[in-house]
Design a protein that fits this description.
- The chain has about 180 residues and is of the alpha/beta class.
- The chain is globular, with a radius of gyration of 15 Å.
- It has a single domain, classed as Cytidine Deaminase, domain 2.
- A hairpin with a 4-residue loop joins β4 and β5.
- The strands form two sheets. An eight-stranded mixed β-sheet has the order 9-8-7-6-2-3-1-10.
- The two termini are about 30 Å apart.
- Bound molecules: zinc ion.
- Zinc ion binds next to loops.
Length: about 180
Amino acid sequence: MRWEDQSETVTLPAAAVFLKTLEPADEQRLSGLENELPRVVVTSDCLRSMREHLDTSCDELGGLLLGRAYRHAGPAETHVIVAECSVASRVFDSTGVSLRMETEVWDRARPLLDAGALVVGWYHSHPNLGAFFSETDRTTQRSFFRNPFSVGIVIDPVREEMRAFVGPESAIVPEENLVVVACG
Ligand SMILES: [Zn+2]
């Protein structure tokens, strides 16, 4: 299927209640960050399911990230983005002007979306190429995941690297802002 623009106007809840649900160490780490860039939280279940999917092939694979996004009043207003669940696509072709995934991805995402989850972004692999965003990836992000809380996670399963990029301009998420938490 051709992936359509996912940007939408949503009123996000404040992050404070979510942060209190985390383990104290995770909560302190996230609350203590001084920078103004979004905080990206990946649940260990979500990371495991992404890795299990991406480890199955040395071709580039990908899928959707579902979860929650919150407003966060730190030193400046920013977001806390929580990737709770990955939805794998067996078909994945990202060209910047189109993002092709199989139709069933949407079918598998639907129950979670109906339960209130958001499409918070996408993920894909760069087997043995390094975890960076290519120009094509930046164009895909700008075209299809352009909310300020849209995150693109790229994983190199060979080199064991993971990076996250956020917003329409694909700003790199600092390593300290990318936190894997045990919940979920
Ligand atoms: Zn890429």
